[in-house]
Here is the input.
Amino acid sequence: GIYEERNSNVFQPDEPLFLYIEPTWFAYKNLKDNLGKPLYSISIAASFIIYDKNGKNLTGLVLIPLPDIISHYKNSEIYIPFAITQSSPFPPGDYTIKYTIMIEILAILLIL
Here is the structure.
């Protein structure tokens, strides 16, 4: 993948947290551009919850608005830029972030 690897899992209080995501096997919605040429839309939804070191939920479920990805091709992979920024930084400590990424997947039917 194309990303910068971090040497540590320690972040400064005002530093954004980036998640590198490259899903595969997603479904497409067929669209057309203004000239009638085919376009393909991929629907994505994302959320996260931050927990303290004792497992206490600190944020509740936070929904991240992500626009559909529209492409001229049926991409086999996509990169989703996903970042969490802190408007009110947490104090130094240990935290766990649970990410949930929802993508319509391609259904495959096997007949044996």
User: Anything to note?
Assistant: The mean pLDDT is 83. The longest strand covers residues 44-52.
